[in-house]
């Protein structure tokens, strides 16, 4: 096959999926429905007039309207964290060429948790700004370590080796976290709520802290998407197309770590969101990351918001943390996906 025909075939493969518009419209509608549900549903349901008062009449100081106003920041925070985890999952799967790569499976969340708990125990940190930098450092170091271990030996970084390296690293780091927590009850009390993963602490200040990291990570993901498409064809082909594979992997992985680490710092280690959102979008839309990345952001926001609302309803009058709900929902879906498709390199 000539080079011109090969280039033509490649362009044809990267055209917009036929069902992209339909999927986009459906997801946006569902996103709106979930956002309204997040404002209305909970341990104390909100009536329609209270929803209107809370959204459009700031001068009205009623109990229901105040609940709506508090839930607005929580809903926005949930949507943004879900989007960040969705994009992070897409980037990690592409960089590692592993269809089941996810911040939680690769141990990145656990690495962020180790640095956060160490900061609480030894540095007396207590603010979101302090959490976020420690979590980013822990996520980055863990990602480098897991990829280094998974790349050793014959065959390089295969999907199975990366998952095993991530599982082993996560187990070891969890032991270190327990060793720090057990003799320090005051640290355990502060860390316990964060550890299970929750968007209940979402506030406008947390959103303001998180937004710059989200913007930077998403922009890098969008810019690198065409090159990551080339990387999916193999390193040799990507190099032939002019892609600097080493630099690309470093930049894309950095963006994934920024998104995952920032979300983990503020909401705790929430698993399965990045894995599920990206995997489902690949199945529906195909492999083109120019479309998978933005749709993974929307799907991640949907999954996390649905999990948050479900946790409030299931745990009423209390609340079941969103990290527990995503694990409960994600595990069986992951099993179904694994049964229907082979786990192979992307």
Automatic annotation (TrEMBL):
<keyword id="KW-1133">Transmembrane helix</keyword>
<feature type="transmembrane region" description="Helical">
    <location>
        <begin position="105"/>
        <end position="124"/>
    </location>
</feature>
<feature type="transmembrane region" description="Helical">
    <location>
        <begin position="248"/>
        <end position="277"/>
    </location>
</feature>
<feature type="transmembrane region" description="Helical">
    <location>
        <begin position="20"/>
        <end position="41"/>
    </location>
</feature>
<feature type="transmembrane region" description="Helical">
    <location>
        <begin position="322"/>
        <end position="339"/>
    </location>
</feature>
<keyword id="KW-0813">Transport</keyword>
<keyword id="KW-0812">Transmembrane</keyword>
<feature type="transmembrane region" description="Helical">
    <location>
        <begin position="76"/>
        <end position="93"/>
    </location>
</feature>
<protein>
    <submittedName>
        <fullName>FecCD family ABC transporter permease</fullName>
    </submittedName>
</protein>
<keyword id="KW-0472">Membrane</keyword>
<feature type="transmembrane region" description="Helical">
    <location>
        <begin position="289"/>
        <end position="310"/>
    </location>
</feature>
<feature type="transmembrane region" description="Helical">
    <location>
        <begin position="203"/>
        <end position="228"/>
    </location>
</feature>
<comment type="similarity">
    <text>Belongs to the binding-protein-dependent transport system permease family. FecCD subfamily.</text>
</comment>
<dbReference type="InterPro" id="IPR037294">
    <property type="entry name" value="ABC_BtuC-like"/>
</dbReference>
<feature type="transmembrane region" description="Helical">
    <location>
        <begin position="131"/>
        <end position="150"/>
    </location>
</feature>
<feature type="transmembrane region" description="Helical">
    <location>
        <begin position="162"/>
        <end position="182"/>
    </location>
</feature>
<keyword id="KW-1003">Cell membrane</keyword>
<dbReference type="InterPro" id="IPR000522">
    <property type="entry name" value="ABC_transptr_permease_BtuC"/>
</dbReference>
<dbReference type="Pfam" id="PF01032">
    <property type="entry name" value="FecCD"/>
</dbReference>
